[in-house]
## 1
Amino acid sequence: MRPRIVDLTHPLGPAIPMFPGLPGPEIEAFLGREATAERYAPGVSFVVHRYRLIGNSGTYLDAPYHRYEDGLDLASLPLDHTADLPGVMVDVADQVEAGRLAIGPERFVDLDLAGCAVLVRTGWDARWGTPDYLATNPYLTGEAADALVAAGAVLVGIDSWNVDDVADLTRPVHSRLLARGIPIVENLRGLDRLPRRGFRFHAAPLPIPGGSSVPVRAYAIVVER
């Protein structure tokens, strides 16, 4: 057996798709190599960058505090809710290709999801970097969220720009999952490279006290036989 690491994260940069109205990330050299060269031995220099970004940028994780004032923030969210989780990939790209964007509870029936990170593949990540990515998105229904809670899912991820129908301002999926302490990872990519089972999922956030959402380096470790 040998492990295979699968990167599930979009690169983070100024031109990435953002939720409408939110600014893209900015990166600047706070201290450049020329300036730092004056501080070190000859031939030694560093660059020190400053990053400005909205927490909901790129491939990112929502902690319960994103939705609820008394919910767990990024610092208090247990690592065992975000790292080294047994993964289940649920492939719904067939219905999305057919124009059915609402993903209901029937896609999760009879699946053993207890203690798992459930990653929903819609195929939407193929549109990343194009205007179509921010078109009306594939999403989970509130009933699907209820099914995931009842099945014991520990984390839910999707390769679309929102796990909810963005036209539904009640945000039922965020509300129901985060109320139960289930973090959400959005804007995943490459879920087609995963098996349905047999992988471990990692998306640990920075432990920011009072933090609600933050980009993560999401990846899976697949054990191939």
## 2
Amino acid sequence: MKNYLKTILLFFVASAVLISCSDDDVTPPTAGFTLSDSEPTQWDEVTITSTAVEAIDITYTITGGDYELNGNIIEFLEAKNYTITQSVQNTGGADTSTLIVEVDPYNTFSLDGEDNIEFTKPPFWVAANPAHRILNAYIRFENPIAGGATVDLFKITPITGATDPLEGTYSFSKTADKGTYKIVHTHNQEGMKYDWTTNGEGGSDLVIKLIKDNGGADNIYDITITSFTLDYGNWDFATFTWVSEGKKTLVFHYRGVISASK
């Protein structure tokens, strides 16, 4: 009889243990995560940090544009709005958390603090051509409009030398010294007609960084001029003199591909 009572008692104890460990008693998870940069620009790498509680399984779904995810580091490859959703679960339930991230382009310029103007297509190299007085290859930035005219055209000449890489820091110079750069800005060019063009006067260094090495033509570069004074006016082709019409401060940012020569 005692052995029988012990068996019944052990049965109830075991049942109580099983009941206390059932899924109903597991705290459901709470999803949550943060980003190391909430206002990234295109091709930035951002770290995702989970703040989820009681989560066993954590997954992320990312939509809106192309990206690369390496562990908890995401690189945004496009200037679009991305939706990042974290899904978590354990034996007690599941939860989700969502962030919408606006990824801005890094290919704009401004003059005297005016609104940033975005370049509408990637820049490209123009090869040196001494017969046409182009003594050094330059990077040409332009915004085309209907009819073949150009709203804004920048010519930036980083003079690297025969063997130097493109990336580096260049000081402004109107001469073709190694390690320097020149810059010209033309507005509304059509044929040989200009609303105005510029001569560079000087300012901050030109800084070129290799952001993403894709093995050549698809490399992503970061090109920055933080503050530069441009003297606006026109050339008097009758006297070959410069007629100044005023000065503006240029702030220039570009991040992206530089296409091959055209």
